[in-house]
What we know:
Oligomer: single chain
Radius of gyration: 13 Å
Amino acid sequence: QVQLVESGGGSVQAGGSLRLSCAASGRTFRGFAMGWFRQAPGLEREFVGSISWSGGSKVYADSVKGRFTISRDDAKNTVTLQMNGLTPDDTAVYFCAAGLAPLRAVGREVRDFGSWGQGTQVTVSS
């Protein structure tokens, strides 16, 4: 199975930017849709964005549309999430996830994804 590790989290002030990375080990995630989710304390894990297995289709939550950008580089087994214009509402642990099966349409639900990373903390101060 795909094993994922997130990195790039940290603390920034409102309006700042962060670039999160998701690296795969064990096997490549080529052919799998990839997604980013986040979870704040006391809340359920929520969808942030996803990218199709081909990279040709991207879906974003309304709350991050226009500010966040997902990209993938299958040759390097990496997926990135560029986050601009951060606000305190973006504070959460961010998780990278791989789709349940190859060559499937990208989803936006937790149940649409299988392998998960451990998460990386993003804290945005006002």
